[in-house]
Structures are given as structure tokens and as C-alpha cells.
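C-alpha cells incoming
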């Protein structure tokens, strides 16, 4: 089944938009992982110092939240990349 020119153009535009969104997800993922790593390092340094109580709790909560966002970002990026590749293959098969 061959696509019409309009359908091919729509599919290409859709693939391009999904690729832009994948780049945004990747950038957000890198930020979340960086924040999580910085918070873990801060927790390790606070463990031996006099910074206890509320600061350690705040940094732990931030590390946990950014770690969760990082995990969701990894899953989202992986699944999105698979979906874009499937659409590209589908478009190439039906030209």
C-alpha cells in the first residue's frame, strides 16, 4: 500500500516533531541525573559534617525526586526512540 504525497509529508512532519520531543526528553533526563548526582555527593559530604537535620532532609528529598524523574526519563527516551524508528521503518516500507 503506497502512501499519497500528503500522507508521506504528514508522516515526515510527525516523525520530525517526535524527534524534537526526544531531544527535549534527553536534555531533561541529563539535568535530572546531574541534580541527583550532585545531591548524592552533597549527602555524602553532609554525613560527616555538622550539617544535619533539615538540610540533609531537603537534599535527600531533592535527590529522590530527581532520581525518579531520571528513571522516568530513561524509560520515556528509550520507548520514544523505538517508536520513532518503527515509524521511519513503516514509512520506508510503504513508499
Amino acid at each position: 500500500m503506497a502512501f499519497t504525497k500528503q500522507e508521506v509529508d504528514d508522516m515526515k512532519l510527525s516523525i520530525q516533531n517526535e524527534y524534537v520531543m526526544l531531544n527535549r526528553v534527553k536534555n531533561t533526563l541529563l539535568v535530572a541525573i546531574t541534580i541527583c548526582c550532585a545531591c548524592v555527593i552533597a549527602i555524602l559530604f553532609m554525613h560527616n559534617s555538622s550539617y544535619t537535620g533539615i538540610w540533609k532532609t531537603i537534599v535527600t528529598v531533592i535527590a529522590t525526586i530527581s532520581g525518579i524523574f531520571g528513571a522516568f526519563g530513561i524509560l520515556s527516551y528509550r520507548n520514544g526512540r523505538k517508536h520513532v524508528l518503527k515509524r521511519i521503518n513503516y514509512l520506508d516500507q510503504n513508499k
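note: Helices lie at 5-47, 54-93.
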